[in-house]
């Protein structure tokens, strides 16, 4: 009963959001509350909701100050050289920009953190897409593909969880799937090429308007962007690099890093109260749009976890696997793990579903390491940038200004193809067996 209620909750949410009947925020809050009341959990709804909000609070804080930080860096022109470099290499060609987006994303995503990857790439590249009139869906789609494949690194969420729950090391889980990951990277470049070619057909090669030049200082004079002192630009670059290194090395909790980093950047770049207040008011809307989604997602996952819907869904999923298919479990796990990322949170899948799958596979003589490899080929690898249960997804769509349902419809097929390509290569190289 609880499992059925959980599947219905997820299904109703996906239908409502993908058909744009209600906003994602409304569905994230009201659908699970109605489901909890229907399941007889009325007296516990408050506590479960609060537990979910508390769990995502650090993420919400980090995102709020990260959005402010990168918004400030964009205004100061920190990313202008990168943007100009992309435009020079792309020659105003949407196809080349799409491929460049994939390359930049995969480089940034080496830190294994989806949230920071989305914050950095969208902040740097969204101005390029706006200037050329390219669809923001192309940006979110290509970034999702690039970040998804790179999420397989051992310090990334999927592999780290799989190793922890099954007590394995990276040589058992990650090393055998390196060829599959390389194939996934190659496919992402191919996919970004095809997506970019389609966008090029829609737009054609675009000629950017000339930057206005200052020809005088009288009324009505066209103004060029304000010039920053080289020392200030150098400071911003050093501060950003220090922040990113600290983020990768986890020298401090991520929310603390961005709170402190933004406070320092704001003081140095806008030393007066008026300028500081002006920047906060200017970007407050962006912060609210993104962080409210994060806290709404906390309500959703808090109720699904507190009511045990996710646990029951995991057990039901394993129960429906016929014994005749047990020997093919690695392939089944690999193919189904990506769409299941839309149903299960990463913790629920890796700590709830994966151990049961591994135990079931053991009865058919299949090693747990093979199931772990199969799981990371799709679950939260190509699925996490689409999942409504992952907070980072709302950073990607919120900062880009697209609807979650639009993003899912646009990139789901490409993401599933990424999983399929990696699964085939994993089979050919023996990382998983048929």
Furnish the topology, listing elements before pairings.
Layout (H helix, E strand, L loop, with lengths): L1 H17 L5 H15 L6 H31 L4 H11 L3 H15 L5 H19 L3 H15 L6 H10 L3 H4 L4 H26 L26 H20 L4 H16 L3 H34 L2 H11 L9 H12 L5 H17 L5 H9 L14 H10 L3 H26 L5
Helix pairs in contact: 1-2, 1-14, 2-13, 3-6, 3-12, 3-13, 4-5, 4-6, 5-6, 5-7, 5-10, 6-7, 6-18, 7-10, 7-19, 8-16, 8-17, 10-19, 11-12, 13-18, 14-16, 15-17, 15-19, 16-17
- In sequence order, what are the helices and strands, one letter per element? HHHHHHHHHHHHHHHHHHH
Helix content range of the residues, please? over 70%
Poorly predicted regions are: 210-225
What spatial form do the alpha-carbon principal axes imply?
Answer: globular
Strand content: under 5%
In round numbers, the mean pLDDT is 81
Number of strands: 0
Largest sheet report: none
Oligomer: single chain
Distance between the termini: 34 Å
CA gyration radius, whole angstroms: 23 Å
Number of helices: 19
């Amino acid at each position: 009963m609880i499992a059925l209620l959980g599947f219905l909750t997820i299904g109703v949410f996906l239908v409502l959001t993908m058909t744009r009947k209600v906003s994602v925020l409304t569905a994230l809050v009201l659908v699970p509350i109605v489901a909890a009341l229907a399941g007889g959990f009325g007296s516990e709804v408050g506590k479960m909701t609060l537990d979910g909000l508390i769990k995502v609070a650090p993420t919400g804080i980090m995102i709020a100050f990260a959005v402010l930080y990168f918004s400030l860096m964009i205004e100061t022109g920190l990313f202008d050289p990168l943007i100009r470099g992309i435009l020079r290499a792309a020659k105003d060609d949407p196809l080349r920009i799409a491929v460049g987006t994939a390359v930049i994303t995969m480089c940034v995503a080496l830190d294994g953190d989806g949230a920071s990857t989305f914050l950095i790439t969208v902040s740097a590249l969204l101005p390029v897409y706006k200037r050329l009139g390219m669809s923001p869906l192309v940006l979110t789609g290509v970034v999702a593909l690039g970040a998804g494949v790179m999420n397989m690194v051992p310090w990334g969420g999927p592999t780290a969880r799989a190793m922890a729950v099954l007590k394995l090391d990276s040589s058992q889980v990650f090393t055998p799937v390196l060829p599959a990951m390389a194939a996934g990277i190659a496919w992402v470049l191919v996919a970004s090429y095809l997506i970019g070619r389609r966008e090029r057909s829609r737009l054609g090669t675009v000629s950017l308007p000339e930057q206005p030049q200052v020809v005088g200082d009288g009324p009505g004079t066209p103004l060029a962007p304000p010039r920053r002192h080289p020392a200030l630009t150098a400071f911003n670059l050093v501060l950003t690099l220090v922040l990113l290194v600290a983020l990768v090395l986890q020298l401090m909790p991520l929310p603390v890093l961005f709170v402190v980093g933004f406070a320092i950047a704001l003081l140095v770049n806008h030393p007066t109260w008026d300028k500081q207040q002006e920047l906060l008011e200017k970007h407050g809307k962006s912060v609210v749009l993104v962080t409210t989604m994060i806290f709404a997602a906390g309500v959703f996952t808090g109720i699904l976890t507190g009511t045990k819907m996710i646990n029951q869904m995991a057990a039901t999923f394993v129960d429906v696997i016929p014994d005749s298919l047990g020997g093919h479990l690695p392939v089944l796990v690999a193919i189904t793990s990506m769409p299941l990322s839309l149903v299960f949170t990463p913790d629920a899948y890796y700590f709830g579903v994966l151990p049961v799958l591994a135990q079931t596979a053991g009865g058919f003589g299949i090693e747990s390491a093979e199931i772990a490899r199969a799981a990371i080929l799709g679950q939260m690898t190509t699925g996490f940038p689409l999942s409504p249960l992952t907070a980072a997804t709302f950073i990607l769509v919120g900062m880009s200004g697209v609807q979650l349902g639009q993003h899912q419809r646009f990139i789901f097929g490409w993401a599933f193809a990424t999983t399929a390509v990696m699964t085939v290569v994993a089979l050919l190289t023996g990382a998983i067996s048929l």
